[in-house]
């Protein structure tokens, strides 16, 4: 009996010893690469509308928009803002703008023309003369979006308001811009 018990203990000990002696396999870490410059933001494939309060708004602004002010949902454009939008389709789209014209700027500039371009082609040039919220939409010809992702949407504001304090030239006080599906007729 004693011999059987000692054989079992020896077998258990051998198993434990073999289990703790497994070879250690090490691999070198993969080669490290620097990310290319200018790819700090990953742009989503679909983005029909951009709100100026969006946390990733800067990734879609190409030029001429003032930095966001903490706590504000609108941002000033300058004379020639440009945006990169990724509409979820190319047919039946319309450009949509929502912005404010402030009484203190309109009283100086008078009526403001906002020329709208999509991929460098003029779509519309509405004139706004009444202070307050402005909501504007206009159809975009399908061929202006065909094969173009992202779409470059531009606004050319004239006249601009020149601030006396620092000489900066302000266009419109923008809340949202988009290339959205046009409502069915």
In a few lines, what is going on in this structure?
The chain has 185 residues and is mainly beta. Helix content is 14%, strand content 38%.
- Under CATH at level 1, the class stands as Mainly Beta
Q: Which sequence of SSEs, written as H and E, runs from N to C?
A: HEEEEHEEEEEEEE
Mean pLDDT: 83
Beta-strand percentage? 35-45%
Compute the separation of the termini in Å.
96 Å
| CATH topology category name | Jelly Rolls
SS content category: mainly beta
Helices, by number, come to 2
How would you describe the shape? globular
The number of domains is 1
Rg, Cα atoms, Å:
30 Å
CATH superfamily: Galactose-binding domain-like
CATH architecture: Sandwich
Helix content: 10-25%
Number of strands: 12
Largest sheet: 10 strands, antiparallel
Low-confidence stretches: none
Report on this model:
By secondary structure, the chain is mostly beta strands. The protein has a single domain (49-181), classed as Sandwich (Jelly Rolls), CATH 2.60.120. Helix content is 14%, strand content 38%. It has 2 helices and 12 strands, in the order αββββαββββββββ. The protein has helices spanning 2-20, 103-109, and strands at 49-51, 61-65, 75-85, 93-101, 112-118, 121-124, 127-128, 132-140, 151-158, 161-162, 169-170, 173-181. Strands 1, 2, 3, 4, 5, 6, 7, 8, 9 and 12 form a 10-stranded antiparallel beta sheet that branches. The protein has a two-stranded antiparallel sheet with strand order 10-11. β10 and β11 form a beta hairpin. The model has no long low-confidence stretch (mean pLDDT 83).
């Amino acid at each position: 009996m004693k011999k059987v018990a000692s054989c079992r203990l020896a077998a258990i000990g051998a198993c434990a010893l073999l289990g703790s002696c497994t070879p250690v396999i090490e691999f070198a870490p993969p080669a490290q690469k620097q990310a290319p410059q200018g790819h700090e933001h990953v742009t989503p494939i679909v983005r029909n509308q951009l709100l100026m309060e969006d946390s990733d708004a800067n990734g879609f602004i190409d030029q001429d928009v003032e930095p966001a002010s903490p706590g504000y949902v609108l941002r000033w454009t300058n004379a020639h803002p440009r945006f990169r939008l990724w509409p979820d389709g190319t047919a039946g789209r319309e450009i949509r703008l929502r912005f404010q014209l402030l009484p203190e700027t309109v009283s100086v500039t008078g009526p403001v023309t906002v020329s709208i371009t999509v991929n460098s082609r003029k779509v519309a040039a509405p004139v706004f003369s009444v202070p307050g919220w402005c909501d504007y939409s206009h159809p975009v010809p399908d061929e202006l979006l065909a094969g173009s992702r992202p779409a470059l949407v531009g606004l050319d504001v004239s006249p601009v308001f020149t601030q006396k304090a620092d000489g900066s030239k302000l266009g419109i006080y923008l809340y949202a811009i988009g290339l959205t599906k046009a409502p069915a007729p």
